[in-house]
Amino acid sequence: MKAITKDTRGRFAKGNPGGPGRPARETELSYLRAIHAACPPDMWQEIVTKAVSDAREGDPRARAWLAGYLVGAPKAEVGLLSDEEEKERFNFF
Where is the sequence biased in composition, kind Basic and acidic residues (predicted)? Predict the structure, then answer.
């Protein structure tokens, strides 16, 4: 297998083999239908309710799972803010 190389901007360099790509839409839909059949919305509601309860009781995995759905992963920032910039940016009160 040929090594994958990237250019200085992190993009795939010329000559890299392409991957299999995303599955065909019909294939993707068949998987989504199977998931929905196994876990319909009322069951999903029960799962989410349990996760909320567990998170409130201090379960860190439940909190992380919920946070991933509700607010997404935190985005890393490059560079530091001065004290004034930090006060201005994070002054919610």
Answer: 1-10
56 domain-assigned: yes
The angle, 0 to 180 degrees and rounded to 10, between the axes of the packed helices 60-70 and 41-56 is 130
What pLDDT sits at residue 23?
A: 72
Structural domains of the chain, count: 1
Q: What residue has token string 């190389």?
A: 5
**Global pTM value:** 0.52
CB–CB of 57/71 below 8 Å?
no
- What is the extent of the structural domain holding 47? 40-71
2 domain-assigned: no
Lookup: tokens for 14 = 């010329």
